[in-house]
Amino acid sequence: MFFRRLIKKYPAEMKEFLLRLVDSADANTRHFVGEMLRPVQENAWFYNEPEYPLSVLRRMFREPRPYPRTSVGNNLSDLARRLPELVYGLVAELVASGDKNSYWIAYRACRNLVKKDPKRVMNLFGIDEYRYKKTVYKRESN
After folding, report:
1. Domains of the chain (ranges, CATH numbers)
2. Do strands 129-132 and 135-138 pair parallel, antiparallel, or not at all (unpaired)?
3. How far apart are CA 44 and CA 58, in angstroms?
4. Nearest 5°: phi and psi at 141?
């Protein structure tokens, strides 16, 4: 919470700091960065300036470690609630990269989008079924 207040009060300085941290060899540090950039109440201004968190998160789009990778996917999923078209574009970019970690992030990012438009999400991934927890969305047979 403290760091999120600093981000809001000193966005330029904190962005420089986060950009240094995101390149850390330590996965916990990268996870910290991802969590600080979630568009929660203190960071709701990110919805109006999504390039701020994305400028840092993009450097994690091929994240190999589970906790920071999950944080990036969760960030995108949160952004999708208010900026779905932006996230659809990012998901297409991640899937097209061919990187398995990017694909995982994209899949995680769609957990809110799939509720509203499962067919569009499945088309992005080229799949007939999207699973999240116990919910399964299937393409309708024609």
Report:
1. 2-138 (1.25.40.290)
2. antiparallel
3. 19
4. -75, 140
